[in-house]
Amino acid sequence: MSHVNGIIRDVSRYKMVELQLRDSEEHFRMMFESSPDGLAIFDLPITRFMCNHQFSQMFGYEQHELQDSPWQKLMRVPDNAVHGRMDRLMREGNIDFNAILFTKLGKVLYCNVRCSRFHTSHGPRYCAVVRDMTDRRTLEFQLQQYSQKLEKLVEERTQELTYYSEKLEQLVSERTAKLEAMNKELEQFAYTISHDLRAPLIAIEGFTELLKDELADALTDESAEWMNIIVNSVQRMNHLISDVLELARIGRVVGEKVEVNLNQVIDSIKQEFQIRMEERHVTISVPEPLPVIKTDLQRMRQVFQNLISNAIKYNNKENIEVAITAEKRDDNMVEIVVRDNGIGIPEASQKEIFLLFRRLQTGDEEDSTGAGLAIVKKIINSLGGEIWVESTVGEGSAFHFTLPLKAE
Fold first, then answer.
1. Which residue among 78, 133, 265, 306 is the one 20 to 30 A from 54 at the CA level?
2. Confidence at residue 234, expressed as pLDDT on a 0 to 100 scale
């Protein structure tokens, strides 16, 4: 009787490991081939060189063409230069460098090469990741050129602007000097004319008063009225000359800027106008406290004196009301409103009233020189503000003007 001996061995574990290794290898190959960068795996000294599709496509070589001296073919430099890099890789395990590499057809590529060492059962191996930086390098070069052109253009424009700025400054300086000279001449002319005009006016007024005294018993009522008209006309002419001189001084004669409490300014004007206010039944109200601003005190008094005086003069109501309010417009500007219940101003005249010698046709023109609002406008403008009026005929007017809270 014959016997057969056999050995049964469980190889399931080995098969499992084999399958896992196969899966791992397939997974590695898939990642290796799908990488957007050129990948190469090699040993040192090189006996085997494996690259992915991207690497072959980048340089135009088939894998078998790179088995012999691959880096010499790609770098096209002396062997000692290639050996120097490989020796460093073997010593340090990792190197990263930028290099000019050549395709099979001789096209130049600017590449970044990163090599690192890893270990296998067959000994150390090296992986090279090659990224084509040609497009980026070209773009950087173009940007550098554009930057240089832009810098040159900016420099040229800066030189032009500097030239024109200097010319403009020179022109402004010349014009300013001429304007100052003209203003001085105008001031001198105004004073000369005022002196020449006032001298005969003083004589006319003086001799008229002498005649009134000398002929007091012989004058008829009509003659006396004529003489009064002469004296009043002379006085009005003197006021007109004074207003014109004052208008010429505004903006050239600058007062000291001090902290001005507008409430105190209004109070002082109320005292000044007290008799007039009682006669005309005038109420001047300040609903909310007015601000303190840094400005020219005397000019501020002139503005409010003129506006309040006009509010009383051009008013036919039994009870005259004047209200003064203020509202902050921004960090350094305030808007002030002087509102009355007077006769109002026709819309067609609302801009003209700020011109010199322009007056409302009310029948009392002989009491006005027509310079008051022109003086007010010039003062407000010289202090850095603006002025305008809103008015309805028969209901009243509101004069708005802005002023800086702090002097510049």
1. 78
2. 73
* pLDDT for position 403: 92
Q: How far apart are CA 43 and CA 281, in angstroms?
A: 113
Residue type, 352: E
Handedness of CA 284, 285, 289, 291 (dihedral sign): negative
pLDDT digits (tens, 9 = 90+) for 227-260: 777 777 777 677 666 666 666 666 565 667 889 9
Neighbouring C-beta atoms of residue 334, cutoff 10 Å: 19
Higher pLDDT, 371 or 135: 135
pLDDT at 17 over 60: no
Parent domain of 175: 138-230
CATH number (domain holding residue 63): 3.30.450.20
Phi, psi of 328 (to 5 degrees): -70, 130
Domain end call among 132, 159, 191? 132
* Number of independent structural domains in the chain: 3
Angstrom distance (rounded) from CA 154 to CA 151: 5
Against a cut of 0.85, is the pTM above it? Answer: no
**What DSSP element (H or E) covers 392?**
strand 387-392
Whole-angstrom distance, CA of residue 311 vs CA of residue 304: 10
